[in-house]
Predict the structure.
Amino acid sequence: MKHRIAISTLMVGVLFLACTPKNPEEEKIENLLSQMTIEEKIGQMNQLDPSWDAEPKEQLIKEGKVGSIFNVVGAKEINRLQRMAVEESRLGIPLLVARDVIHGYETIYPIPLGQGATWNTALVERAAQLTAQEATSFGIHWAFSPMVDVAHDPRWGRVAEGYGEDSYLTSRMGAAVVRGYQSEGMAACVKHFAGYSVSEGGRDYNTTWIPEVQLRDIYLPPFKAALDAGAMSIMCSFNDMNGLPSSANHHLNVDLLRTEWHSDALLVSDWGSGSDLVPHGLAANKKDAALRCINARMEMDMQGNIYTDYLKELLDEGKIKESQIDECVRSILRMKFRLGLFENPYVDEENPKKYTPEEIAIVDQAVEESAILLKNDGVLPLTLDKKQQTILVCGPMADQKKEQLGTWVFDGKPEYSVTPLMAFNELAQSGNFKVLYEPGLSFSRDKNSKGINKAVTQAKKADVILYFCGEEAILSGEARCRANLNLPGAQCEMMDALVATGKPVVMIVMAGRPLTIGAQAEKAAAVLYAFHGGTRAGVGLANLITGKAVPSGKTPITFPKMVGQVPLYYNRHNTGRPSYAPPMLIDSIPIGCPQFSIGQSSYWLETPTEPLYPFGFGLSYTTFEYGEPQISQTELADSIIVSCEITNTGSKDAFEVAQLYTHQLYGDLVRPICELKGFQKIFIPAGEKKEVQFTLHKSDLGYWHEQKHNCESRVWFATDPVDFELWVSPDSRRLTKPIAFKVK
Ligand code: BGC
């Protein structure tokens, strides 16, 4: 009897499944999959950069042996190759056309780190939307961005490509980019999954060791946020994490991505990250690498050729199952259907969209909002109308059309760039001032100091000096890591020589990372940190310097005083011996001082733990006063409302970024000294007051716990029912009195 019930239940189940209407998209996928040969399936898993591969791409495409191409330039060429896939291959499956569209296509926006400094998600989303309009009009369907690797180490060159050191800020920014791209029909690819930014010593591709709870608390949330925003794809990372490279990491790629997060985003390798398993020392040879990658469900192989070369052999030998290949191909076809490529495979060759007036306005706004005013003794904004003034524009970054674009610019056209010198010359035509120009150094690494003397001669004739310093584009980005974070070349010497003239020097730093500019900033009358601002960097910076725009950027990453402090980030733990002030620095230790252990605390002999500029910091041309935050209840069961009044106490209308921080006082594990839980960028006219409101949920205060028993480890997410405090502040320091509350 029991047996009969079981069988009839099974039959009802089968009947139910058979009658359940299938999702039409999934039906199309299954239909196509059923017609594909094994070679065609493996072909779909192959992503090819034709500029690198010797084999004629045309033949491979016609044979259905390529699923995606990247780095193919121009709508005509893209259409030509697409026609081969659609019209000449047996099944006519269109190609996915990918590109590193990182911060703009032809029109280049500030580097992502600069976009992070805007703290303006709506602006970043709009920039991504306009970028996608441009890129898709050139035939690109798939952007290899956003990069949401949370980075604590400015030595790592790729710090330029992300949104800084905070998981929450990065999550908000990454999700905004995904929404922006995908609303215009360009798939986002959130990368690099995972832990890539934690490379030891800030050296690219290096080993990472990340405990599971830290991975889940800090490094994974931006990926989850981007996937929740709909990201259609995700990219493996190059690094090994705890001994296992991502392309072969089943825990990340299957347990987490598929089972826990229920994501159906396409998982693509990074460039050859599958075949890299051999030099990593994980795989015995490339065939073994292919086996490990497919077993970890790496779905598409970017330029590694391990799937094309070995998957069939592995299948014939019975080492893998066809169903493993099928599940990868399903993801690839799904993305092609979702992008509408089967209906619309071609791009209109006659209608490239670029430099539209709206885009120019958004780019200018992005430059203005990405620059951070770090110091100002009152010299800025320049008061150019009062009397005729002479401005010296100098420095190796003042007139560098290409360098101001920053890293990862394949399609941006330097000839369209407006440099600071060009912008000031333009303004001078209608303004009451004269511009002198002398670069001093001809590129950022220039050590030839002859030019500095020329700049000094000009400086003596000027009322104010605008010193555009920083790093050339090629000094940041992939594999561009630095062991020293100073201004390169003779730029520090040039700063000293300019300061020695007695004229006020405004330092404008155009770089791909925070640099250790403390000594120079101390001597400067003002410091504007501009990152690499892109095509229109000159216009936005000139607007800020002359007061047409008011700075509102805030640091998305902590600026260290010296490279030895790295990694230095705001949401660190307190330690059992927090640094006291003032600590006993190296020169204050008495000669022959005996060893002692009382009063020891956590700092370096050369510097306390304070950074040069904290996370979230940035000045304005006005001032803001923060009231004491109010909370709706002192006991948090589900959520509380936090509100705070902010008054613009200065004379300029301006934007302010109000930041909500919390601190858990004690608990199951040690928690950070503060954590960003919300931010709002609001416009406050001079003399007016505005209220910001945040809703803080219990889950916002949760974190990953871990219990170890014998050799088993269990992790879970929970909020401890303990005492907390919060504050609303212009940066991550405790500038207002914290308010206490308790979680029930
Ligand atoms: C980078 C990726 C990039 C890919 C394709 C790799 O070297 O790590 O971020 O998308 O190349 O150019």
About this structure: The chain has a mean pLDDT of 95. The CA atoms of residues 128 and 352 lie 17 Å apart. The first strand starts at residue 46 and ends at 48. DSSP finds 21 helices and 27 strands in the chain.
